Amino acid sequence: MLGKKPIVLLALILLFTGITPANAEVRHPRQEWLRASTAGLFLHWGMRTSPGYTECGDWEKAVTDGGWNAKYWIGEAKKLHAQYVVLASFHSRLGYGRAWPSTIPGSCSTKRDFLGELIAAGKAGGVKVITCMTDDPQW
């Protein structure tokens, strides 16, 4: 535990050096639209979403054959009066699958650009698109 003297000393150093706590990313102008949003649609899927796949190509084929349509999901978001859609496919034990083409080695990446399709449909429909990704350096 820190005693009172080191904490007071730290506070004085911060005060006299003009250093303030970091908050630029907490209140950055590019985030204002998100702060003003009242709803969002979270699309949470990956390679191991039921029934589960171990090969990226099989997962991509199943999604395509299942009728993936980005305009449909943007339409559903608009029905909910959502201002944004989050595509989460590269973040958890559901499989670290990139739903977009990538030359970065290490984990699954589709040939079809599902994320790009969603972004294009979102732009056309006035809905923002966010992707949720892991911060795990292994991936």
List the main descriptive attributes of the protein structure presented here:
single chain, 139 residues, alpha/beta, Rossmann fold, 3-stranded parallel sheet
Nutshell version of this structure?
With 139 residues, the protein is an alpha/beta fold.
Radius of gyration (Å): 21 Å
Low-confidence stretches: none
Name given to the CATH architecture: 3-Layer(aba) Sandwich
Residue fraction in strands: 5-15%
The first-to-last residue Cα distance is 36 Å
Number of contiguous helices: 5
Largest sheet: 3 strands, parallel
Q: How much helix is in the residues?
A: 25-40%
Order of helices and strands: HHEHHEHE
Q: Give the beta-strand count.
A: 3
What overall form do the CA principal axes indicate? extended
Largest beta sheet: strand ordering: 1-2-3
Query: Number of domains in the coordinates?
Result: 1
Helix and strand composition category: alpha/beta
Oligomerization state: single chain
Provide the CATH top-level class: Alpha Beta
- The third-level CATH topology is Rossmann fold
Mean pLDDT: 82
Structural summary, described in words:
This protein has about 140 residues and is of the alpha/beta class. It has one domain (about 25-135): Rossmann fold. The chain is about 35% helix and about 15% strand. It is built from five helices and three strands. It has helices at about 5-15, 30-35, 55-65, 70-80, 115-125; strands spanning about 40-45, 85-90, 130-135. A three-stranded parallel beta sheet has the order 1-2-3, with helices on one face. Helix 4 packs across helix 5 (about 115-125). The longest helix has 14 residues, at about 5-15. The two termini are about 35 Å apart.
